[in-house]
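Dear colleagues,

I hope this message finds you well. In preparation for our joint manuscript, I am sending the Phospholipid-transporting ATPase (Zonotrichia albicollis) sequence together with its predicted structure, so that both groups work from identical material. I would be grateful if you could confirm receipt.
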Amino acid sequence: MDRKLRCQDSGFWGCLAAVTEVLGCIEVTGCCVIEEERRVRANAREYNEKFQYASNCIKTSKYNIVTFLPVNLFEQFQEVANTYFLFLLILQLIPQISSLSWFTTIVPLVLVLTITAVKDATDDYFRHKSDNQVNNRQSQVLIGGVLRQEQWMNVRVGDIIKLENNQFVAADLLLLSSSEPHGLCYIETAELDGETNMKVRQAIPVTAELGDTSQLACFDGEVICEPPNNKLDKFGGTLYWKDNKYPLSNQNMLLRGCVLRNTEWCFGLVIFAGPDTKLMQNSGRTKFKRTSIDRLMNTLVLWIFGFLVCMGVILAIGNAIWEHEVGVCFQIYLPWDEGVHSAFFSGFLSFWSYIIILNTVVPISLYVSVEVIRLGHSYFINWDKKMYCAKRRTPAEARTTTLNEELGQVEYIFSDKTGTLTQNIMVFSKCSVNGHSYGDVQDMLGHKAELGERPEPVDFSFNPLADPRFQFWDPSLLEAVKLGDLHVHEFFRLLSLCHTVMSEEKSEGELLYKAQSPDEGALVTAARNFGFVFRSRTPKTITVQELGQAITYQLLAILDFNNIRKRMSVIVRSPEGKIRLYCKGADTILLERLHPLNQELTSITTDHLNEYAGEGLRTLVLAYRDLEESYYKDWSERLHRAGSVPEAREDHLARLYDEVEHDMMLLGATAIEDKLQQGVPETIAILTLANIKIWVLTGDKQETAVNIGYSCKMLTDDMTEVFVVTGHTVLEVREELRKAREKMMDASRSVCNGFSYQEKLSSNLTSVLEAIAGEYALVINGHSLAHALEADMEVEFLETACACKAVICCRVTPLQKAQVVELVKKYKKAVTLAIGDGANDVSMIKTAHIGVGISGQEGIQAVLASDYSFSQFKFLQRLLLVHGRWSYLRMCKFLCYFFYKNFAFTMVHFWFGFFCGFSAQTVYDQYFITLYNIVYTSLPVLAMGVFDQDVPEQRSMEYPKLYEPGQLNLLFNKREFFICIAQGIYTSILMFFIPYGVFADATRDDGAQLADYQSFAVTVATSLVIVVSVQIGLDTGFWTAINHFFIWGSLAAYFTILFTMHSDGLFRMFPNQFRFVGNAQNTLAQPTVWLTIALTAVVCIVPVVAFRFLKLDLKPELSDTVRYTQLVRKKQKTQHRCMRHAGRAGSRRSGYAFSHQEGFGELIMSGKNMRLSSLALSSFAPRPSASWIDTLRKKKGGEGSSAGSPSGAADKTLRV
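The corresponding structure tokens are as follows:
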């Protein structure tokens, strides 16, 4: 049995004896209790409070007023840089070693901490606001025999609450009674499993009669059930009342998050509340997300700190040696500071002084700039009009500012299906009747008309009961109905009779259908519009209005649908007394059960089915069989006896159903379109070209998910094979996964010759992916996935799944979605993105590196838990390929330049140390040191980090391969970092030694010696500002007015501030601070100084320009090629060719009633679900070449796999 650990408070031991007396099944370990079962007594708060069950208050926020400051500071100081700067601040407070003022560090540190804290507080405020909104919802609670309005947070386990139509269920309830006959109620579970079709729940008979508050107030039944767990589809317990016990199942439960539909009222007993509810048990915790660049920067900061320590040690040793050998000779006029009595101690103090001086290799302004850039990128997402949905008036929203660049590195997308890929709207699209296909509209030339060329839809005005929302485009089908085609009439008669739809007629002619699955609703609505209107039903009759004439059929039996049968049938008696069986189901099942006389018609219909399936439509075959009266009576008696058998009842019924559903006559087939969201196939195709792997994780049934897979082009008939894993045991699942891997390897062996295959394996023994030839897909059910995710099999499952192009997981729970995401994160070390629209997706969204919420039909819980949100799946393409790629590109270029300019700036102090007696003297004055990263160089790099582009947005979408450098971490990694600091060190060497060499013998215009400390400082500083400004110009790929203004404005600001600080006016105001009057003017008036600056700039920049030119000419990147192509196109003024999308020519894919719930037919026949009113009424283009990227990807795949445990499994699998 599942166990839940519940830690008690200080009052635990005081009530332990009383609790153990009652519960008797609690294990005590220290001060913790393991709940093995739950006891709940109705209307007994005092009794239930002994167990200290959770209240109904939920909390998704991270902080409160008390914990915000310590917890947030703790999270921020997990950033190594923040801890590093705090350490530097402490050092600067020690006057003996500090040569810089303390405010140079504390001001930017506090600024960074404050900005981040405000952002985190704002995010958490909205979480608190959402929690309060939910917790303060009102519910009617039965207290003391009276219904009282209580907030959700005040509901307790054991309370009886009343729900009304269209209300959310406040907690996990045991249904006691309802306004419907036999204690039935209808619920919508979209927040739990994403399904919008209604489901039925039923109270146990003994409580179904408790319809008023006086009876319920006297109800004192006790429920003993399982402890809190996350299994949405299972519940086990027993109700003890009046010395009797009654078994309870999931069919008796209303779970939190469901919505009561088409039921006036119901009463329920609270079993689980708040965090113990199954909805909250499936919700992951709010996690602190950091990007891979953040994690890399933490590592780099540690390396830089180590490098800084090494430089400090070298200079400290130099200081000790210099003081011992040289400095001792100058003690008379250069005495040691107070407290310094030896050269060794002088060196020790010098070490800490240099640590402070050289700390600008990682200035804190780096982190301020990173936050500003990320904020700018977030605003670009929010302001993007191309991601704005006018229909819903919903813009895209970046709900976090810390993950933007990771959008450019996504390798795996985990998507929900219902409401994310699809609209969950079923449309009757085409049909085949007696060998004739209807639904294709042709133009004047006889060709198939495109969507934009379609004529007006069929006019159903002849039918006053037609649904005005239904549209069909082929008028020939309506003509066949009007002309009296018997086959067409029988076709629609079957659709109007063979179903479990409930009809409600609020007023004359205003029909409302309540279908268990949207498929059935679409079929019955189609029959309704073509003149065969399902009006009403009773347990024994169905009334249909056929072309204006009301006909009542006697309903003799419903042969219910289930996943094994994949079909349903009804047996009806017509007014003429003829008994007929109507059947509809999956083509793979039904075509085998037809009479041999149907061979020719079967062949034609099969061709139509292949055509429909090729278009991604959900197909269904229709057939009928006439039954003799004597045979039916005999069969009916056997059916009645089988229904009374206590053991193996389902097996007996299945055999009888199978017997009667034979030798049927084929009527035709239907094709239903499960409407995808606009642009889904194109989006998936483009993302696939960007080497992003898409996995669909859905709570729907297998057939539904597979059909959607074909519709959105994840699955194609060009694939080598689609593996379906449906094992119910560990051994079965392991065997199916093993067979799938063997088939993939066998196919690879047949493609490759022995030598090359062996050579390939020997070079990459670590991953199945490298050895697979062909395209495969994997489909796995929830019960099989539960075994596949176990510790001893998860590696095998992951390797098999990653070898496939597409993966679809069906019937998965919210927690399983999160486990699949966690599995890929654990072993593949890839950036993951989860996208969904319902509460059942929240756990997955929180687990993935990036969570995206679709603001759709299923509430806003997914949006509230997400990092980014928008209204349609197609916007994901733009979010990743444009905003994500640009954010990654900009951040990488920003970091490379930032480290370069700061190493160039700081390392000058290191070289100067060898010429100043290692005295910790700075080259520049402290004002330049303070303003360098804040004023002189901050804005140009910010402009590049916010606005830069390598190619326009249209090219980013047109060439998905441009996305791959981010996945491979090519633009900023440890290698690029070392290149940047090498360039910075090279620049610093030239920056110091060229002016030093020139100044050694240079003279002024008046013959005086040019070399002095301040003139040298001005020359080096001016050279540095000019060189780094030219470098940022070279790095900028997309020039805007802002870039020009910031670059040239920063240069102008430098000279303005420089001349101001050396002016006579400032000296008069602050004589102790600005002593060197006129130094800058005099120094920069010398031609020698400007020649020195020019020489330094040229020597620093020319090698960079030459290297980039050669690289562009000899080994251009894809972005370089795209830019060149763009220039050529502009010159030639040619248009891009439009690419046509090729449709899939597919085989049969059956998609019948995938959301249908078994057992509903039996419910109809019993009459328990009947209202009194019802009784009374009787290619994309081929991928562009990118061999260098493919080589790097293979190299990365080999390294990544060898680091994780999947490699071990792959080694065993791949050895031949």
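For the figure legend, we might mention the following. The chain has a mean pLDDT of 82. Residues 423 and 677 are 6 Å apart (CA to CA).

With kind regards,
E.M.
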